[in-house]
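dude i think i finally got it to work??
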Amino acid sequence: MQTAKTEYKRSYGLTVKQLAERIMQREDNIYYRMESIRDVIYKFCDECVKALENGEKINLTGLGTLTPSIHAPVTMNIFDAEDEKRIPYVTVQYRRSTKLKNSMNNKYRKNIENGFAGLSEHCICDTRQRNTLIEKGLLKVEGENTDGD
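look at this
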């Protein structure tokens, strides 16, 4: 039995396997095998998880900073044990480095000038965002006559 083919493909982002393959294919990699690269990445991720669980901030050079943040909602002395919205929780805030921020913004602006509203095929503007860019005159409408006739 065949199922209907959908255009939606779930994306898991950059996986450890894909990252190891990219490192393996680099020109400056002449010593490391795929297994050893993957092991180092897994150990790195494990240490990052342990650091976040211990409330430590992680600063990744060139990428940004991950900071755990505690949220304790105000209950106004009215607490219902079944109300999960009032249970304290932790989030991780990400702040990208200035260098990364500038390079991403420059690439995005250059893509807009070339008529593509996004960073890549994996990260494109939605319809509302595209309409905003068109309204502000930053993005040309496909098929629009620019001759002024």
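Strands lie at 58-60, 64-71, 89-96, 118-120, 123-124.
im so relieved honestly
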